[in-house]
Amino acid sequence: MKHELPPLPYDYNALEPYYDEATVRIHHDKHQAAYVAGWNKAEEELEKARIAGDYSLIQNWERQLAFQSSGAILHALFWQSMSKHGGGEPKGSLLEQIKKDFGSFENFKKQFSAAALAVEGSGWALLGWMPSLGKLYILQVENHQKLTMWDIRPILALDVWEHAYYLKFQNRRADWIESWWNIVNWENASKMLNYEL
Length: 197
Known about the structure:
Shape: globular
Helix content: 40-55%
Radius of gyration: 17 Å
Number of helices: 7
Mean pLDDT: 95
Strand content: 5-15%
Strand order of the largest sheet: 2-1-3
Distance between the termini: 31 Å
Largest sheet: 3 strands, antiparallel
């Protein structure tokens, strides 16, 4: 089964002025599409290796599988993590869980922003739910797959690779992070949390 690029859940310009149309278009149609293609390629090469019984390149294709699939999946969550009607604070069980795990929404927002700003090089800031502990965690993910925790289900994703913000914000990652808070889709994050509760 071939993986396909999922469509955006809104128009390219829907997140203006906080996230510009040109970046959204390139980010989705070029960057995410490349990760989907890379995921398919890695699976094809692994199938060829199984058929041929030749695993001499197994390390390369397993690494590519992790990187490309994680890139495709995180981008799908990233688009769902934003909405033109977003911003503000979450409600209900998500807000209560944030208060329980971080002390207050403001504490959470400061920690999440600091984590996003401090990602070394290319990566992500994630809010993830760990069902086994019943707790939310903030993670910094390098590239798409490094520094992750097992048993974490990401419910909110912020892309801080430079391609995610460079057209509008150039090298001002902090400005991108501040702008992103205006379009955070708390409704989707709440649905994902409640799916696990």
